[in-house]
Amino acid sequence: MGQTPERFTYDVFLSFRGEDVRRGFLSHLYVSLDRSGIYTFKDDNKLERGDDISSSLLKAIENSRVHLVVLSENYASSSWCLDELVHIMECHKRDSKHVVFPIFYDVEPSDVRRQRKSYGASFLEHEKHYNREKVLKWREALTDVANLSGLVKEKDGDEAKFIVYITKEILKMTSISYFHLPTYAVGMRLRVQDIYKLLCFGSDDVQTIGICGMGGIGKTTLAKAAYNEFSYRFEGTCFLENFGESSKDQLQQKLLSHILRRADIGSNNLDHEVKQKFRNKRVLVVFDDVKDFFHYNSIAIDSSCFGPGSRIIITGRDKHLLYLCKAEKIYSPEALNSDDSLKLVRLHAFRTSKPSKELLQLSIKLAEYCGGLPLAMEVLGTLLFKESISFWESTLESLKSIPNDNIQAKLQISFDALTEVQKDIFLDISCFFIGMDEDNVNCILDGCKFFPKSELSTKE
């Protein structure tokens, strides 16, 4: 079996019995998913059929995030559908990233689960033509899928409303890629609430807001937290991290592929594509760490590129630059207050351990010297974890002469505490291996006799 890809080729794989639903329900559902930007695989006989399920179809199942199984009256009569279902359930059991979403279309879940009525009749026929092992696999797959949470379409139900509801549920499953946030995100909830107020979700116009502040204040973390919190409200989302480090073409490709949920974006006339493809979509786009207006402007976007209700968030250190980028409202995160600063320092420096009175007093001084900057508290608190009182005192002495707003100088202390080999590894990673697979980097550095796993292991 193939491994689950980090980025799925398809958002949804549709498994269905063509003669039951292809011309009505299924075609309308496919259009609804497509209009919502949900990239859907629908086998419409373009793949060559044979006695057994094709390798192309197996690969499409493995490369799909959500498997939407439409269990209609004659679904079980098709050996092809049952083979699909067996493979779908195997993928689901092997990796929970594969979501199976059953739709019971004019059938009762209990009849599917126990193979009664039309399902029972189908299996009476299958037992005449297929070996016992194969039939048992089919029965098990039907029982398993019927035990999952899904939706039931009643015979007299409103099909249009049912399709809209399915689409909304699929959007929740496919459109949100959550960012990892710091383990100790002190004060973040209140900041996200402030962003919520600025986003004005009741308004249908396109709005741009800025998040402005010095390095280390937590702009990117706040943008990620807001993205995690509010992505489900939009038809398409994209977070362009470290904006200044990517070329115009790379940024446009990512913008198009993420919002349209397509991996096969061409490289021709991207300016036109960016200006045209999102006009009917309500999207959320985050431009993180914008430093150059001309670089931002080269992406060829403005409010007219996005559909009603879209929101753009831009983070950066220069308020004037954010205004040039047409941010109507700008949020400036304040430094953490003394209580939150002390809490964050102690969470990183002591974690669950019980420090001595001397270390508790030193942690107060560390919180004060960090000037309310979360990044400084995270880095220095981690540096001082399980260190001696003399090491704490030496570090604090180094901090005394550094101004509160000089985050780079404060973080330099943690770099200076590394051994020469650790510094070399750190610089090699920073210069040559950004974005590379960790195992590959470890292999290369091992070949250079640096042994990163031992040199960079977390202190116990």
Automatic annotation (TrEMBL):
The protein's name in its UniProt record = Disease resistance protein RUN1
User: What are the record keywords, sorted?
Assistant: NAD
- TIR domain boundaries: 8-174
Extract the InterPro entries matched here. Apaf_helical, Disease_R_plants, NB-ARC, P-loop_NTPase, TIR_dom, Toll_tir_struct_dom_sf
For whether the record's keyword set contains NAD, the answer is yes
